[in-house]
Design goal:
This protein is mostly beta strands. It has helices spanning about 5-15, 15-35, 40-45, 250-255; strands spanning about 50-65, 75-90, 95-105, 130-145, 145-155, 175-185, 190-205, 210-230, 235-245, 260-270, 275-290, 295-310, 310-320, 355-365, 365-375, 385-400, 400-410, 425-435. The protein has an 18-stranded antiparallel barrel.
Length: about 425
């Protein structure tokens, strides 16, 4: 239940000095910035808000080819799960509104998979654990000119989610106990700062002999984007500083190594007759921080997109540096959307990761069709990790009800076999989602 999934973190955030100061600041500011709404309006604003419901029923199939690594003995896992999110957002009163959202994930039938918390360690991992929790609970103050302050457990997505995201693909999404400030006071510019107190992850981590999905963190996120040329050039600069404390070694320790990341991203689109040309260019440096082992790694991205009528073609090259000891990590990213849907690179290998990819998308009679090809290799040592093919079809039965079929096949070459990975991987999904 929620009490065991982070209630103490929410309460701690609510009564922290920063939280109290934020409430006092908001209360003081509303009297000078806003024309105050009368107290008599408060009950109507509390009851005149907006509910939200998101239900997703999903079947997932996972097959690992031999050889398998201990302790996995079964080569196939299957999971049928249902995820329900039910929330309510109040109407604003004196610039203040809030949301409370419940999330529940349950298994239907036998759980023939390792959720990392169900004790089925002989099966391959499908990271959809059964949970019942408060997914979001926050207050927001928007009474200052072109500025919002949001405090509590919340969803945070920056840019394309390559570094900071909610991992919405998993049934239990990733949220953050955080304070978030967003302002557009500077023309054509959005400045965002977040202080993270806790990561409510979608997966369990083995830390000090315990499996935990709530990670205490002292995180500082700064993201500044400006529209230099309308639609043609948008520049985003960012600095992300993540302190997870002391984390043991091996793959988890490498992922959660304290680090500081600085980067610059350029995006835009250019219409050329009947076509639309888009691009993304990005470069980042990652270094150790607050006592973590010294490392200095690079990230680079170059992507081009061509759109024509109902077709879209993409080609790109992405590089995450590695030297055989340390590698560029993205512990708070929506990694599933980038490094292949087979999820073989949720943690960057010590040799780094280079990804050459192409995709083609089309809309045919309301159905969305996407095919993606990835070629994976090492940054250090020249190893060719393997290739992957991803396929997706979606069909909107109603405006708020959609059916999906999805498939991923990873073909390994020189990628080492470790626990949970094998030479070849196949994943398939059938799912339906209803939202309002």
């Amino acid at each position: 239940m929620f009490a065991s999934k982070g209630m103490q973190g929410v309460l701690r955030a609510a009564i922290s000095p920063f939280g109290v100061a934020l409430m006092i600041f908001g209360a003081a500011a509303q009297g000078t910035v806003l024309a105050a709404d009368p107290l008599a309006d408060l009950p109507f604003r509390l009851t005149g808000g907006t509910p939200n419901l998101d239900v997703r029923l999903r079947y997932e199939y996972l097959h690992l080819a031999d050889p398998l690594a201990a302790p996995i003995k079964e080569d196939t896992a299957q999971a049928t799960t249902i995820r329900v999110r039910l929330g309510y957002t109040t109407a604003a009163w004196n610039g203040i509104d809030g949301q409370l959202e419940y999330e529940g994930v349950d298994t239907i039938g036998d759980d023939r998979y390792n959720s990392l918390s169900n004790g089925r360690g002989t099966y391959p991992v499908i990271a959809d654990a059964q949970v019942h929790e408060v997914n979001q609970v926050w207050l927001r103050y928007a009474g200052l000119p072109k500025t919002q302050i949001k405090y509590g457990r919340q969803r945070i997505n920056f840019d394309n989610q390559r570094f900071i995201g909610g991992v919405a693909w998993r049934q239990d999404e990733q949220t953050f106990d955080a304070a978030l400030l967003t302002t557009t006071l500077i023309p054509k510019t959005t400045v965002t700062y977040a202080h993270l107190d806790r990561v409510n992850s979608f997966r369990n981590f083995a830390i000090n002999g315990r499996n935990v999905d709530r990670l205490d963190i002292d995180g500082h996120l700064m993201n500044v984007s400006t529209q230099v040329i309308e639609k043609t050039l948008k520049l985003t600069g960012y600095g992300y500083f993540l302190d997870f404390g002391t984390v043991p070694g091996a793959a988890v320790g490498r992922l959660l190594n304290n680090n500081q990341t600085y980067g610059l991203r350029a995006t835009g689109t250019v219409p050329v007759q009947a076509f639309t040309l888009g691009y993304s260019l990005e470069y980042a440096i990652q270094q150790g921080w607050r006592g973590s082992p010294d490392h200095d790694q690079r990230y680079g991205l170059a992507e081009a997109v061509v759109g024509w009528k109902m077709l879209k073609a993409t080609a790109g090259y992405e590089a995450l540096g590695g030297n055989g000891i340390s590698s560029f990590q993205t512990p708070l990213a929506t990694t599933h959307a980038f490094d292949g849907w087979a999820d073989q690179f949720l943690i960057t290998p010590v040799g780094g990761l280079h990804r050459l990819y192409t995709s083609l998308g089309a809309t045919v009679a309301k159905a969305g069709l996407t095919a993606v090809f990835h070629d994976f290799s090492a940054d250090a040592g020249g190893a060719h990790y393997g290739n992957e093919v991803d396929l997706l079809a979606s069909y909107p039965v109603l405006d708020n009800f959609t059916l999906f079929a999805k498939f991923a096949a990873y073909f390994a070459d020189e990628f080492p076999v470790v626990a949970g990975q094998a030479t070849n991987v196949q994943r398939g999904w059938l799912y339906a989602e209803y939202k309002f």
